[in-house]
Design brief:
By secondary structure, the chain is α+β, with helices and mostly antiparallel strands. Helices cover 31% and strands 22% of the residues. The chain folds into two domains: 1-43, no CATH class; 48-99. Strands 1-4-5 form a three-stranded antiparallel beta sheet, with no helix packed on it. A three-stranded mixed beta sheet has the order 2-6-3, with no helix packed on it. It is flat, with a radius of gyration of 17 Å. The N and C termini lie far apart (40 Å).
């Protein structure tokens, strides 16, 4: 929980205008779950990697959002990042993009 406390402190420092958030159980649970998931993804062997800076559509890595232009391969927006095993490994979850 030490990492969760560090993340919480950073959130409180950033959102200093909203001191009541420090006592919001839903936000505290959300932060704890995010830290737990990030740690689980990191300690895998190989660790999972998140990719969100692709500029061109690749069918093996991406799924198009329903409003996308099916004729375009240029990614205009990433709605959900790609999750791969390792930096260049197999795609574990396709990213959702707008083309």
């Amino acid at each position: 929980m030490l990492f969760g406390q560090e993340v919480c402190q950073r959130v409180w420092d950033t959102l200093y205008d909203f001191p009541r958030l420090r006592h919001c159980p839903g936000l505290l649970r959300y932060i704890e779950e995010c830290v737990r998931l990030a740690w689980a993804l990191t300690v895998q062997n190989p660790p999972y990697s998140i990719h969100y800076e692709h500029t061109h559509f690749a069918a093996d890595l991406h799924a198009r959002f329903h409003t996308s232009d099916p004729c375009s391969d240029v990614i205009r927006a990433v709605l959900w990042p790609v999750l791969t095993e390792g930096e260049t490994g197999q795609c574990a979850y396709k990213g959702v993009v707008v083309t």
